[in-house]
Amino acid sequence: GENVEQHPSTLSVQEGDSAVIKCTYSDSASNYFPWYKQELGKGPQLIIDIRSNVGEKKDQRIAVTLNKTAKHFSLHITETQPEDSAVYFCASGGLGGGADGLTFGKGTHLIIQP
Amino acid sequence: NAGVTQTPKFRILKIGQSMTLQCTQDMNHNYMYWYRQDPGMGLKLIYYSVGAGITDKGEVPNGYNVSRSTTEDFPLRLELAAPSQTSVYFCASSYGGDRGSPLHFGNGTRLTVT
Question: Which residue of chain A has the CA closest to B57?
């Protein structure tokens, strides 16, 4: 089955700096790559996603890049703010697969230092 | 819309006790999922359902049971609680089952078995 590796497990950056979280996946049939943000005491919430027919997608300070050849995708957060502190999960899935949802990475705890 | 609602938020069980974790969604999604989240381990799929009356095992189903009598509700049953079932449980739903659809999560149930 699909395997998703996520790095780093913890990332501490100064407020205003950029943060990058990286994921690799194993199943070449995967073509849907969402990112979730989980705040303390809450469930994960979708913040951005990308499909394999697109190499990059941006939404304000957040961007995701995808390299299908290398099977990796990354989350980029620019001009980080205190409210960006959370755990971030990458995931992979794809059309034509089973109905068993997504495969998740183990998460990155992002800490924004004031 | 309330989205995905889980009850209770917290629960402490003694070894061998049983309980049902409730999950309901008001988005008319056909696909529903139960995950458990352990520290540093990401999200593991327990069971999923593609519609009323249909359920299937995920990655870690042992010790759990589910039912899906309506589109809205997807309860998770623990029959004989064990310390290994101490975890945070998340219910999720999605509109499509092709593994290319975003998941919508509830805010979780934190369960401790002592």
Answer: A100
Taking the C-alpha atoms of residue B28 and residue B20, their distance in angstroms, rounded to an integer, is 22
Q: For A32, what's the count of Cα atoms within 13 Å in the CB-facing half-sphere?
A: 17
Contacts of B92 in chain A (CB under 8 A): 43, 101
When CB atoms are compared, the residue of B42, B106, B108 closest to A104 is: B42
> Each residue of A17-37: pLDDT tens digit?
999 999 999 988 888 899 999
Q: Does B105 touch chain A (CB under 8 A)?
A: yes
- Can you give the pLDDT at residue A97? 47
Closest in A36, A102, A106 to B99, CB measured: A102
Query: Among candidates A66, A74, A75, which has minimal Cα distance to A94?
Result: A66
Provide the 3-class DSSP secondary structure of residue A70. Answer: coil
CA atoms lying within 13 Å on the CB side of residue B25:
27
Q: Summarize pLDDT for B13-47 with one digit per residue, the tens.
A: 999 999 999 999 999 998 999 999 998 888 999 99
B102 upstream amide cis, omega within 30 of 0: no
Task: Identify whether B8 is preceded by a cis peptide bond (ω within 30 of 0).
Answer: yes
Contact B82/A at CB under 8 A: no
Backbone angles phi, psi at B84, to 5 degrees: -65, -15
